[in-house]
Amino acid sequence: MADEDSSIIADLRKWTACDVADGLSKLGETHGGFLEGLTMFSPEFQSGSTKIVGKAFTVKMVLKSETDAPKLQGNYIDKVPKGSVVFMSQPTPHVNACYGGLMSMRAQYLGAEGTVVDGRVRDLQEHRDLKFPVFSRAIGTTAATAVSRPSEINVPVKLQSSVQDATIRPGDFIIADLDGVVCVPRELARKALDAIPPKAEADAKTAEAIKKGMSVEEAFKTFRGK
Q1: Which residues take part in binding substrate (predicted)?
Q2: pLDDT digits (tens, 9 = 90+) for 192-226
């Protein structure tokens, strides 16, 4: 399984998040794996060629008032596997940031690809100084300590969204770049990758035809079948 995972990750790196979303859409995934509201804040804000690909290492945060929720032993960041994408799930609503610069420093040392925070991050300049990729829903200044805590790692987490129902599971593949964050269900990864090349080839032919003066309507009919 490890060899297959490595092969999938290598193949995902060949494509953009949009390409992968197209592959998932061809398989009937309504949102193409896209996770709404998550934006690249580091190493630059929505700029550059940064792309992260890896298996999701999920971290579930809970409000401190949830006294019955499991308590995590040790610090989650020390458990991050090499090559993974840390996916933080922050409970809503509150404005405190659940991820900061020291966490990126440790994640980078351990070989993580980057971090996606479904919530707020702080210490933005520290992440950027490290050139460590961080995607998040928003920015804040105040640490989460007073209001929330890490509860579990490597458990399914739901996207904190009022407009989308999505679950990120440990071991699912994450690809994130300038266009956003896509979660690829592990069981669909290879099928999605197989679906990408025909679509990419058709798009390349369509683009070339449009450059030469063909109308979009005609180019779509000719090369995309619609």
Answers
A1: 100-103, 122-123
A2: 999 999 989 999 999 999 999 999 999 999 988 76
Contact between 121 and 135 (Cβ < 8 Å): no
The burial of 169, by beta-carbon neighbours within 10 Å (0-12 exposed, 13-18 middle, 19 or more buried), is given as middle
What are the CB-based long-range contacts (under 8 Å, 24+) for 198-205? Answer: 199/19, 199/22, 199/23, 199/26, 200/15, 200/19, 200/22
Torsion of CA 86, 55, 42, 131, to 10 degrees: 100
Note the pTM of the prediction, 2 decimals.
Answer: 0.94
- What domains are defined for the chain? 2-187 (3.50.30.40)
The encoded tokens of residue 146 equal 């007073």
Binding-site members are 100-103, 122-123
Which residues does the annotation place in the binding site for substrate?
100-103, 122-123
Whether 179 shows a pLDDT value over 90: the answer reads yes
